[in-house]
Amino acid sequence: MPVKDHVMAGAGELIGTAMFLFLAEGGAKTAQLSRAASQTEVATVLSNESILFIATSFGLSLLVSAWLFFRITGGLFNPAITFALWLAGVLTSRRAIVLFFAQILGGIIAAALVYALLPSQNVSSVNTALSSGVSIAQGFFIEMLCTSALVFSVFMLAVEKHRATYLAPIGIGLTLFACHLFAVVWTGCGLNPARSFGPAVVSGTFPKEHWIYWIAPLAGGFFALLYFEVLKTLKYNSVVLDQDSDKEVIGLRPVHVRMYRFISRDPNAEIPNLLGDDDDDTDLEKGRAPGASNGDRVNSFPVYAQAGGTAVPRAVTMPGAANGERVSSTDTYPVPNIESTLGKVSPSAQQQQHGQSNFLSAGTPESNMTLAHPPPAMNPSAPNQPGI
C-alpha cells in the first residue's frame, strides 16, 4: 500500500480523534462547571443531569465525528478498536501502528485544547479515575465489559456489511452513550486509551490505577472479537433467515429489485423494501403477474400478431384468479386484417437498401407475419373478449 495512503489515514485519525475528544471532554467539563456553579462549591458527586449531559456529549461527539470521517479512515478514534481490527485482519500491521499513534496524539491535542480554552477553577478534572469505594478488579471489569460492548457494535454495524452499514455511526454513538450512563460515575468511563492518556499527560496526573485504562480496553476489544468470531462460525445470520435478502425486505418485490439492478447496471445492487408479499413472490416465480386474488385480478393485454389474417396471441401466461378462473393464454380474439384495411404496405427504398421492411421483426418474412400493436378496439358484441 502506498505511503501516501498511510499518511492520509493517519492524518484523518489524528484530526478526527482530536475533534471527537475535544467536543466530548469539553462537554464533560461544561457539565461539571454548571454543577459547581449551581452549588457555589466544587462538585464532587455527579447529578443525574450531569451524567446525562456527559453521556450525551460523548455519544453525539462520536456519532458526528465518525460520520464525518467514516469514508476517509473508518472513524475509529480509539486504539482499542484499532487493536481489535488488527487482530481480525481488517487492518495491516503498518496501518494499525500509524492509526494507533495518530489516535494517541489526537487525544493529547484534544486535552490540551480543553485545558487551554476552558477555566478550571473549582471544577474537577476530566481525567479518568476510579471512584471512592471501587476496587481495582471492579474498575477493570467495568472498563473491559463496556469497551467490549463498544467494539462489538463496531464489528456488527461497520465491519459486517449490511443494508444499514451507512448508519453505523448512529449505533456506535448510542452504544458509547449507554456505556457512559452506567460507567461514568464509577470509572470515568474511559473505554479508550487515547481518552484517558491525553488528559493525564496535559495535567501531569497519572493515578496509580492508570494502567487499567490501557489493559482493560485492549482486553475488551479482544473479547469482542472472540464473540464476533464465534457468532460468525455458528452462522448467526441463519437465525433470522434472509433478513437482508431481496424477498424478506419489506415492501419491495423481487421484480422491482431486478428492474432496479437492470437500470443501475449493477447486478448486486441492494435497495430497501417496505411491504413484503409472499403471494406476489409465488406468482412471479411461476411466471404470473402479481395482483389481487380470485376474480379481482386485472387482466393484461397480450401482444398479438397477424399471420394471414388470423389472430395469433403471443404465448404468455395471463394474470387471473386461481382454481381455473384465470384467463387462458390460448384464447384468440378477432383482429382486423391490416392489409384489407390499409392496403399492402411496401418497404421504402431506404428500407430495401438496408434490408428492412415495415412491421417486420428481424428474420421474419413479410408474407408470413405482421405485428400489430396496440391491440385494436374490440366489438362489444364479439365473443371471447378479454375482461378488464
Beginning-to-end CA distance, first to last residue? 64 Å
- Say what the CATH topology of the domain at 3-238 is: Glycerol uptake facilitator protein
The helix/strand class is: mainly alpha
Largest sheet: 3 strands, antiparallel
* CATH-scheme architecture of the domain at 3-238: Up-down Bundle
Q: Can you give the mean pLDDT? A: 75
Highest-level CATH class of the domain at 3-238: Mainly Alpha
**Portion of residues within helices:** 40-55%
Count of DSSP H/I helices: 12
The amount of beta strand, in percent, is under 5%
Q: Give the overall silhouette.
A: globular
Protein topology:
Blueprint: H1 3-39, H2 48-69, H3 79-87, H4 93-117, H5 136-159, H6 168-183, H7 193-203, H8 212-233, H9 254-264, H10 278-285, E1 304-307, E2 310-313, H11 338-342, H12 349-353, E3 370-371
Antiparallel strand pairs: 1-2, 1-3
Helix pairs in contact: 1-2, 1-4, 2-6, 3-4, 3-5, 3-8, 4-7, 5-6, 5-8
Task: Walk me through this protein's architecture.
With 388 residues, the protein is mostly helical. The protein has a domain at 3-238: Glycerol uptake facilitator protein, CATH 1.20.1080.10. 50% of the residues lie in helices and 3% in strands. The chain is built from 12 helices and 3 strands, in the order H-H-H-H-H-H-H-H-H-H-E-E-H-H-E. The protein has helices spanning 3-39, 48-69, 79-87, 93-117, 136-159, 168-183, 193-203, 212-233, 254-264, 278-285, 338-342, 349-353, and strands at 304-307, 310-313, 370-371. The protein has a 3-stranded antiparallel beta sheet with strand order 2-1-3, with no helix packed on it. Helix 2 (48-69) packs antiparallel against helix 6 (168-183). The chain is globular. The relative contact order is 0.09. The model is unreliable at 246-253, 274-307, 311-332 and 356-372 (pLDDT under 50). Residues 347-370 have a biased composition (Polar residues). One of its GO terms (molecular function) is water channel activity. Belongs to the MIP/aquaporin (TC 1.A.8) family. One of its GO terms (cellular component) is plasma membrane. This is Aquaporin.
